[in-house]
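Archive transcription. Copying these from loose printouts into the bound notebook so they stop getting lost. Printout 1 of 2:
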Amino acid sequence: MPGDDLHTYEPPDLDDMSPRQAVDAVTADIRDHRITADGTGMFNTTRHIGLLCHLAARMAGDAEYQLAPNSAGLPPAENLSASAGHLGKAIAHYTQALAPLLVLTTTAQDTLQQQLDSLDHHSRLRIHLDDGGRALAAARTALEAPRSPAAACAPAPAPLRATAVRRRV
């Protein structure tokens, strides 16, 4: 079967991985199960949304756990929270992709006008999927960016004050 060599993950599979590995697994799953303008595309989209929701909830939970003592091995809570936020954006884009995908999968494209109308739906679908992919990449980047202990402890610089100018009246 052609899909046998593809990455296929389910939400429980992600729980046994590090946050970075889980994001990479979802990225591989999304890459290997493309969104097409047919019933398979609808199934893949809803499946991707499920994986992203599970992953976002996990990142938020890991961030909360990181705030408690004895939480070795996790990225800093700030990184986990940022990653969860980016995953939320990916979920939003994949959810917005459902509308044009639904039109493309349920509307006949027999006439020239129907085919022309479908171009807008294909464009909107591509925009949402591309934006979702960028949000997922940002979630991965947020996990990679280490926060230096010095930056976390350093006080913010005082704002510069403009020199007062006296006016003669």
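Printout 2 of 2:
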Amino acid sequence: MPSNNGLLVRIEARAEHAEEVAALLTGALDAARAEEGTVTWFAFREGPTVFGIFDTFADEAGRVAHLEGPIAAALMEVVPRLLASEPSIRVVDILAAKPA
């Protein structure tokens, strides 16, 4: 298994800003690719205004670096304007995985 350190983030956009949030997440892919400690990074949409991010990290240091990095900073910057509430950021431990 490549990693057992993960994050699961739930993001709820204000209805009028849902497409801006989608664009923000789509645009964050290159930043995620550039993070050395990030093993996998997925942005997804659950419904019209609900989004999420699931990512895994090489180790705890990679997870901490990601939480202190540009993607998290960009997300927190738009909270008051684009999001209906603060993102829910949950630390998870991966128990089993089937890598590509």
